[in-house]
Amino acid sequence: MRKTMPCLLAILLLWSAGCSAATDDFDSVVSGVEHRYSTHAHRIPLVALIGLCARVYTRGGVEGMHIAEIDNLDRANSQELFSLVQSRLGDEWQPIVADREQRKQSGAAGLSVIFARPDGRIMQLMIADYENGELNLVRMGVDGARLSSWINEHEHGSRQSD
Amino acid sequence: MTRKFSIPACFFFGVATLAASAAVAQDKQPRFPVAIEKKLAARATNVDEVTLDKKMLEFAGQFLSSKPKDAQAKQLIQKLNGVYVREYEFDKPDQYSAEDLDSLRKQVRGSEWSPMVREHSVKGKGDTDVYVKLVNGEVQGMFVLDAEPKELDVVYISGPIRPQDLNALGGNLGIPNVKTGDPSKETK
């Protein structure tokens, strides 16, 4: 028992440090946008529970989910927003997929970017989707091997049921 | 303030986008070989960029299915160092000029790059250029410029690859299906 408690404590500390790191970069992006555009983000209620469900349902394929919605960004420039998110995330994060839409007549612009940061067997992802003055941010860790095997099992299962 | 945010939609957007195209750029060795003018990009109504380094390719490769074409693509990307795609869509034709295309071609005309395919449409439907990067006699990269009336695709694949491998990779990782050897086009 004397040995078990310190071990449990150490595991708990390591786990909370990992969670904190995941939350830090997400919070930094959210607070950066809030501060720059004087607005407030809507946090999704029970997101920790949703994240846990996603993790259990995908058998560890998806973890550490964080979600925020920031609106009233009508005066935001999509390129400026992209630079802000990237600078808040830091150099370790790279934009892997970016989709920019410019509507010539209305002058409106949409932007969807997936940032990624390899973290051992996990790929940390931050998805930023901006359209009509609203920015949606989703952060999650994806275990490629587990998620792909989960997807394959489901595909295999649905093929058999057909 | 209306709430239009859908958690499942956002989650599946992320996963589906990854499964469909995924990618990254962590080690910054292979650089995109051409600089695309901002003016050209500004004329596009839609710009898609995919930037995948070796690590991201490994990650993305896990989501390819076991279907024969995907299995072939999976095998190919294991050897690659990076895949970089820039896709510009325009709302009407003639948004880029022949000079714009020439300025892109000029940037890959060097000692390492050799033109391999040049298809020029007789009816002005589009041009396709394929250049290969030869290092010590071996292909170590490929540059594809595919110009359609309302679309311009620029692809750089870093690593050992053959032109015929493009068919297997087309449709994956944001790489467009580049048709080489189209009978309606005239090869110069």
Measured as a percent range, the helix fraction of chain B is 25-40%
Poorly predicted residue ranges of chain B = 1-5, 16-29, 182-188
Structural class of chain A: alpha+beta
Distance between the termini of chain B: 58 Å
Largest sheet of chain B: 7 strands, antiparallel
* Helical content band of chain A: 40-55%
Q: Strand arrangement, largest sheet of chain B? A: 1-2-6-5-4-3-7
Written as H for each helix and E for each strand, in order along the chain, the element string of chain B is HHEHHEHEEEEHE
Shape of chain B: globular
Overview of this structure, please?
The complex is a heterodimer of chains A (162) and B (188). By secondary structure, chain A is of the alpha+beta class. Chain A has four helices and six strands. Chain A has helices spanning 4-37, 47-57, 78-89, 144-161; strands spanning 41-43, 62-70, 94-102, 109-119, 122-131, 134-143. A six-stranded antiparallel sheet of chain A has the order 1-2-6-5-4-3. In chain A, strand 3 and strand 4 form a beta hairpin. The mean pLDDT of chain A is 83. With 188 residues, chain B is an alpha+beta fold. Chain B contains six helices and seven strands; from the N terminus they run ααβααβαββββαβ. Chain B has helices at residues 7-20, 38-43, 54-61, 68-79, 98-107, 165-169; strands at residues 46-53, 82-89, 113-121, 127-135, 138-148, 151-158, 185-187. Chain B has a seven-stranded antiparallel sheet with strand order 1-2-6-5-4-3-7. In chain B, strand 3 and strand 4 form a beta hairpin. In chain B, helix 3 (54-61) packs antiparallel against helix 4 (68-79). The longest helix of chain B is centred in the N-terminal third of the chain and has 14 residues, at 7-20. Chain B is globular. Residues 1-5, 16-29 and 182-188 of chain B have low confidence and may be disordered. Classes of the chains: A alpha+beta (162), B alpha+beta (188). The A-B interface holds A 42, 44, 47, 50, 54, 62, 65, 67, 69, 71-72, 94-104, 112, 114, 116-118, 123, 125, 127, 129, 134, 136, 138, 140, 142, 144-145, 147-148, 151-152, 155 and B 1, 3-5, 7, 10-11, 13-15, 17-19, 21-26, 42, 44-53, 55-56, 59, 62-63, 65-66, 91, 174.
